[in-house]
Amino acid sequence: MKYIPFILLLAGLVSSCFSEYRTFIDYSIQNNSTSVITLSGSEIIHARNLDQTINPGDKVVLTEWTRMGRSIGQIEPSLIFGEDLVILNATGDTLKKDFHDGKNWVQDLSTTRETATHKYEFEILDRDFR
């Protein structure tokens, strides 16, 4: 009878070792400009091309994935999108805001007992174009 608390504690420790912690990650672009914007480039995580049009006021998730394990730090956008991502507005002006700089991405990080969610949003305004 005196071993029951010890056995329960041991069972809890063993079961926690087998539970999987997951981290959900997504990167999106929010077009808050007054112009339609077009993206051209690639996304390295899933090895696919990004050729998208985003209307004013719309938000598009560029990439999302799940990683096993505990919460991670921010992954630099250049590791996800490489160097070839080009963003243009309807008049053909190129985005001057640096998407490589992690400081230009708004972070929303949350955790629960079993999961962590990392959301990164890149907001585009009219003044961000040349």
Give a summary of the structure in a few sentences.
The protein is α+β, with helices and mostly antiparallel strands. The chain contains 2 helices and 7 strands; from the N terminus they run αββββαβββ. Strand 6 (105-111) and strand 7 form a beta hairpin.
Structural commentary:
- It contains two helices and seven strands, in the order H-E-E-E-E-H-E-E-E.
- The chain has 130 residues and is of the alpha+beta class.
- The chain has one domain (20-128).
- A four-stranded mixed sheet has the order 4-1-7-6, with no helix packed on it.
- The protein is elongated and about 75 Å long.
Q: How much strand content do the residues show? A: 35-45%
In percent, how helical is the residue content? Answer: 10-25%
Number of strands: 7
- Uncertain segments: 13-18
- What oligomeric assembly is this protein in? single chain
Compile the SSE list and pairings:
Layout: H1 4-18, E1 22-31, E2 37-43, E3 48-54, E4 59-68, H2 77-81, E5 86-89, E6 105-111, E7 115-124
Parallel strand pairs: 1-7
Antiparallel strand pairs: 1-4, 2-3, 2-5, 6-7
What tags apply to this protein structure?
130 residues; three-stranded antiparallel β-sheet; 15% helix; elongated
